[in-house]
Amino acid sequence: MMRTNDGGPRRIVVISTGGTIASRWQGTGYAADASGSDVLATAPLPEGVTVEVVDLFNVNSSRMTSAHQLALLRTVHETFADPGVDGIVVTHGTDTLEETAFLLDLHHSDARPVVLTGAQRPFGTGDGDGPGNLYDALQVAASVRELGVLVVFDGRVHAARGTVKTQTLAADAFSDPSAERLGRVGFSRVDVERLPERPAPLSLPDAALTVTPGATDPGATPLPRVDIVTHHADGDPLFIRAALAAGARGIVLEATGAGNATPEITAAVADAVAQGALVAVSTRVPAGPLAEIYTGGGAVDLVAAGALLTGTLRAAQARIAVLAALLAEGDGATDPARRTALLRRLLEGPVRAEPALATGGSRSASAVVTRA
Ligand SMILES: NC(=O)C[C@H](N)C(=O)O
Fold first, then answer.
1. Which of 154, 190, 256, 280 could form a disulfide with 3 if both were Cys (CB 3.0 to 4.6 A apart)?
2. Within 13 Å, how many C-alpha atoms sit on residue 39's CB side?
3. Could you give the ipTM of this predicted complex?
4. CB contact at 8 A, 163 and 101
5. CATH number of 2-192
6. Candidate of 16, 33, 61 to mutate for ligand 1, largest count of ligand atoms within 8 Å of Cβ
């Protein structure tokens, strides 16, 4: 399936949030400080594309918070209220780009695309990858429909769901270790090879949950705390209990293998569930689904304790799914069964893989809905 920007007029809004694509030397290291207009000025525009820039914030993405992400989600929604906008490009640091992209995707119900991109090399360097990535992102935003939220990097088009940063420094920073990319962009064309798998979108979280990043408003509704605890040899249930004591309403256990830990950790998970926390089990292994195979503290027992397996989602995106399920509670009325069912839907994928099938399933693509 090929999507070509036919050169007809397209209005794209670029929302600038910082990251290396906007980072300049500060004397001791790099930090985001270039404006969205400065970043945009580094890239040529694809034919027929006009761009407006929104400077939302300017942070390196390791400093991203749920407050930033919700502010961005709302800005995307407000931008699409204008029917004349054809698509959105978000420039973002690569460190947590996969988390922001997935949160946007879980709430994205518009046919028009949101495309996230960034850079591995800083702003203004002669050999920088930012200008090319931005050009490609604009090209994709001007060309596709019905693909949800995308990550465009190094000539590749990725679905938000499942895509993670897999290279610390190399230009091809992103991939989904459990699936193929969606397509490619280059030579003025966008090739889409498969459709993303996306659950039905969530409605926007309650406006009261959108707070100014960094502001401490004592009257604001606190955003739910969701922690990630990693298991390893000598793993200690202390960290699950500490997360709960700190007020976590959700916990992602980044387990070993296909979702295994210890009987002691399983007991802590059972206590967390009994106290009303949502617990999801992901894995520190890069590729493949979670599967109920082992007892003795393995995934079989963790599921029996009330945890949900995360399919092929890794911990950082699983955390976003838990956060989204908690945010969807709106006015705070909690119904644990409904909340768990919602999280199961957001996680989708092989939550219960039989051992014989534990190496994964096949994916099929159907026709992409073309631009009107
Ligand atoms: N390449 C990058 O964008 C990394 C940067 N530290 C960030 O995430 O903001």
1. 190
2. 39
3. 0.97
4. yes
5. 3.40.50.1170
6. 61
